[in-house]
Amino acid sequence: MKNLAGKIVFITGASSGIGRATAHAFAEAGVRLLLCARRLDKLTEIEAGLKAAGALAVHSFELDVSNRKAVESTLGALPAEWAAVDVLVNNAGLSRGLNKLYEDDPDNWEEMIDTNVKGLLYVTRAIVPGMVARQRGHVISLGSTAGHLTYAGGAVYCATKAAENVISEGLKIDLMGTPVRVTSIDPGMVETNFSEVRFRGDTEKAAKVYQNITPLQPEDVADAIIWAASRPAHVNVHNLLLTSIDQANSMVLNRRS
Ligand code: 8X3
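Above: inputs. Below: predicted complex with 2-hydroxyethylsulfonic acid.
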């Protein structure tokens, strides 16, 4: 991808799943990778592989995007050679539980809203002013099929992903008159540790989610992100909804038994 080479690409939640696959795909395009996650050791483990894949440089740091003060202080003090972010991938996000709303533990809601909605806002607020000042940039945020159709037990997770869609739409409106682009990438089921996190390490329950269907792989989502990021500068991909062949929406799946 010639038009991505040399760019600074900042990916949140880059240590696993879609974030890690996206880091790899951008590495192959010859970018400079700025990566954060809650666990720095997991990021440093993947740095060598990213450089071998073609990343011009990698700078990793620990950051919990739900911690507003940490986001403001860390992103406000990026090393000068990393500060001019060209592409921001707002990937950090999670789900907790699959319980009836009226029976759920509010701690689950807090964690999802703090990360998926407030974290997205904090990081975007810290990075976008620089993009506007430099007159270049692209904000790519991860939504979900869950933001388009609510499913049982998913009210709050689905609400956070619907919020991501609305925030991306509003950001695009507010950026009119600037060349900064905004994209929401909305995948369906992707085979990552998403369900393990949702069920707090219950691997048996998590495995059932992907039983007898072919889910998307993180690399499929990374491909979509790279495609959106590599369009000519005058093209803004607003929303890209993608599922595997076995999924029509949040609710309709083709389970082969
Ligand atoms: C993840 C997709 O359907 O598991 O955002 O909620 S789903």
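The CA atoms of residues 13 and 92 lie 4 Å apart.
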